[in-house]
Amino acid sequence: MILPIVAYGTPVLKRVAADIDKDYPELDKLLANMWETMYNASGVGLAAPQVGLGIRIFLVDTVQMFEGKTEEETKGEVGIKKAFINAEIIDRTGEEWSYNEGCLSIPGINEDVFRPETITIRYVDENFVEQEETYDKLAARVIQHEYDHIEGILFTDHLPSLRKRLLKRRLDKLTKGEVDHHYRMTFPKSKKKR
Fold this sequence. Notes:
A hairpin with a 5-residue loop joins strand 5 and strand 6. The protein has a single domain, classed as Peptide Deformylase (Alpha-Beta Complex). It contains five helices and seven strands, in the order βαββααβββααβ. The chain is about 25% helix and about 30% strand. By secondary structure, it is α+β, with helices and mostly antiparallel strands. Strands 2-3-4-5-6 form a five-stranded antiparallel sheet, with helices on both faces. It has a two-stranded parallel sheet with strand order 1-7.
């Protein structure tokens, strides 16, 4: 089932999400719905707060970004596809690099964001088996973006204050639903679903 994605300005997006345990009700169904929602919106990542749930779950699929490309074009990256539950980034290293990021909760706005090149993350998978892995390049970028969601941080929070001020009018319009989007969303000020 495709879930509505909550828009910028919805309070759940600014709260630190809570851990869950293996008895979380209908976890398999939630994960299946989140994957379906992410793909329907043409996303490469989706966090539970983006579907209105204040829990520490996010999905990443960067495999789709590299499909049909040569090894030279992908610079050896193959991508990852997995769910992260109760994640904690335990190390960030390497030089910070800029990449133009967007967000399903902030459609129509993309900005350059600097993030460290490499991360190490501890989490449990959908079977509640603990994992600790290190990622770099684009996988690390997308994981950090989604991880920020479960920490109550949006990519716009990483922007310089001048850039934030320049985006304010567009962000205010977004909270009212005055934005083009091609997927199901809810907006905090309009209280309308679209």
